[in-house]
Design a protein that fits this description.
Largest sheet: 3 strands, antiparallel
Number of helices: 9
Number of domains: 1
Helix content: 40-55%
Strand order of the largest sheet: 1-5-4
Shape: globular
Strand content: 5-15%
Order of helices and strands: HEHEEHHEEHHHHEH
Length: about 200
């Protein structure tokens, strides 16, 4: 069973590397999305294990949102890790790192994915990252539904859309098509539903 332990450490990692070791919820959500997107395309797995939804302000990791808003999560929640590593301010929707993240929960490739994304996108504001997310295929696939007032406001994203080709100018997601195809095949294999007898 997946737990939020690694997800909480990823949130702490992001906050720990921001100015004053503090970050807003929306910016953290967008950085997690980019980290997991990168990891899927290079290592055929996510860092956090979270599920993503397309919402008005872009792509949002559902359990990360629930952890920070003190709601129930899909994964088993490690509430003691939240209090130990994160100081959450519900009023201004920001959180701070209480202490350095526990790097033992991460693989070398997890850390590489987080560092690459923080290097290229960590200096952007929440609004800039939100606007950026509106250009990616995984949000655009749901744009018409999201912008239709008669429809619901959030949609679970098909993970296969994370493998779609889109270059935002940073070069981070300008992947070799053959390598990307291999990563997607591995992703599909790892996440295939088991055959029932």
């Amino acid at each position: 069973m997946k737990t939020t332990r690694k997800l909480i450490q990823a949130l702490d990692y992001i906050a720990y590397h921001q100015h004053n070791r503090t970050v807003g919820f929306m910016k953290a959500y967008k950085l997690l999305w980019l980290i997991d997107r990168y990891s899927m395309r290079h290592y055929a797995r996510t860092v956090t294990g979270d599920m993503y939804f397309a919402m008005e302000h872009g792509t949002v990791p559902t359990d990360a949102k629930h952890v920070l808003e003190n709601q129930s999560t899909i994964m088993d929640n490690s509430t003691e890790d939240v209090d130990k590593y994160l100081r959450v301010n519900d009023i201004d929707h920001r959180f701070s790192s209480r202490k350095a993240p526990n790097l033992d929960v991460f693989s070398k490739s997890d850390i590489k994915a987080m560092d690459i994304i923080l290097e290229h996108y960590g200096g952007m504001s929440a609004i800039e990252l939100s606007k950026l997310s509106h250009k990616f295929p995984e949000w655009l696939a749901y744009k018409d539904k999201i912008q239709n007032e008669k429809k619901k406001s959030s949609y679970p994203i098909d993970p296969n859309l994370f493998f779609s080709v889109y270059d935002d100018g940073h070069g981070v997601f300008n992947d070799d098509p053959k390598r990307l195809e291999v990563a997607k095949d591995l992703w599909d294999e790892y996440n295939a539903e088991p055959i029932k007898a």
